Each structure stands twice: as C-alpha cells, then as structure tokens.
Amino acid sequence: MSESMDVRGQCLCGAVSVTAATSNPELRACHCEMCRRQNSFAFLNVQTEPESIVVNGPLTVFKSSEWAERAFCTTCGSMLWYGLQYNGERHLSAGLFPKLSGAMVQEYYVDECLFGNGFAGGHQKLTRQETIALFAPTEGDAR
Question: Which domains can be identified in the chain, with CATH numbers?
Fold first, then answer.
C-alpha cells in the first residue's frame, strides 16, 4: 500500500477549509440527476481516508435522499461532499484540492450521462441500477 499523504483545500471563497489523508487519490464521477443539477455536469470526487477528514467553516448539510446527503459552503455554495447516511462516509469534491491529481477509476449513473457514455478510459462504469445496488441499503440491510 502507498504511503498516505495529507491534502489541503478550500471552497471557492476560502471560508471552508478541508484537510484529509489519501494513499490513493483516485477520482470518481457521478452523473445522477442530483449531481448534474448541483454541478451542471458530473460530480468529481476523490478517495480519502474517512477518519482523516477535517472540515472547518460555515457549511450546510442537505439530506438529498433517503440514503445520502450533500454538503456545501454556506457562504459561496461550493460543493464539499456527497455522503452516505448509513455509515457517514464522505466523498470529497475533487475541486477542493487544486494540486491533487489521480486516475479516474469509477463512474456512477453512466446511463444518465449527458454526453454519451461518460469519460474516456477503461475504468469501471456503473449504471443507475448498479450504483444503487452498490450504495443504497435495501430493506433489512445492515448497511
């Protein structure tokens, strides 16, 4: 496993700062309707170590579905994360970290992508049904 590195970033106005650790700064993209409405395109997020995330500043958390939440800067509206209700996992916005680069490894809701089949490359591409099966707990599921 790679050595962990700290990443630091901020929202557009600088009111919210974010630090996290990552040993594998892989990128993921979501093309669901909510991400498209919020970002005008896919939401790009970076893999970080969940227990390492520290966020400071004015933010609002919005429960966007029965199983997910989204957070944004209360001052400028910058997207901060997409999170899972059942385990608290946060997928931090890749745009917060301007000097971070990583390979695209996964796309969600590719069957709802505005531009065909998403981003180029041989990474995993999940349909709506496959994405929901991966993240959304079902009735009686312990997730």
Answer: 5-135 (2.170.150.70)
